[in-house]
TrEMBL record:
Amino-acid biosynthesis in keyword set: no
Record-given protein name: Septum formation initiator
Alphabetic keyword roster: Cell cycle, Cell division, Coiled coil, Cytoplasm
Organism whose genome encodes this protein: Sporolactobacillus laevolacticus DSM 442
Keyword Coiled coil appears in the UniProt entry: yes
Places the protein is found: Cytoplasm
One GO CC term, this protein: cytoplasm
Pfam families in UniProt: DivIVA (PF05103)
GO BP field: cell division
Chief place where the protein resides: cytoplasm
Gene3D superfamilies linked: 6.10.250.660
Residue stretches of biased makeup (Polar residues): 159-173
Length: 173
């Protein structure tokens, strides 16, 4: 068990025949007591500082552990967000491709229909042109025929006869 300043102070030495000078020993012991008390106080202060430092170290270690956990959670969350964003982006791209394919297919279908309509109209135009050409040629043949000439002479006679008849009817009235 370590000595205390009180132990040093209360220490009584036995007296011998030609022993040490009592005042000198007491002065020396007083000096030792003061130094020893100072050392004990410094030791207590240092122990308190160590205790405070240990508490702070423990506190900061807890904070460090908490921060490391938070960083890990944040990294995991960021990774999840990144993965979800990539998945969503892929879904958006796939949906856009589907829409693009659908629009292209609809446009191709409309183009085919328009092409078929154009072909049908060309056929109908050719048929109409052919019929119209045949009609005109038939009319030209009719105009060139001798029957037309005879109808024209009869028509002129008929017009004269009609005028004569009309004049007769008017004079009788």
């Amino acid at each position: 068990m370590p000595l205390t300043p009180l132990d040093i102070h209360n220490k009584v030495f036995s007296r011998g025949f030609r022993g040490y000078d009592e005042d000198e020993v007491n002065d020396f012991l007083d000096q030792i007591i003061k130094d020893y008390e100072t050392l004990i106080r410094e030791k207590k202060d240092l122990e308190q500082k160590i205790k405070n430092s240990d508490e702070k170290l423990s506190h900061f270690s807890n904070i460090e552990t908490t921060l490391n956990k938070s960083i890990l959670v944040a990294q995991e969350t960021a990774e999840e967000v990144k993965q979800n964003a990539n998945k969503e982006a892929k879904l958006i791209v796939m949906e856009a491709k589907k829409n693009a394919d659908r629009i292209i297919n609809e446009a191709l279908e409309k183009s085919r229909k328009v092409t078929l309509n154009i072909e049908e109209l060309k056929k109908e135009a050719n048929v109409y042109r052919t019929r119209f050409q045949m009609l005109i040629e038939a009319q030209l043949e009719l105009l060139k025929s001798d029957d037309w000439k005879s109808m024209s002479v009869d028509k002129d006679n008929e017009t004269s006869t009609n005028e004569f008849n009309d004049g007769m009817i008017n004079s009788q009235a």
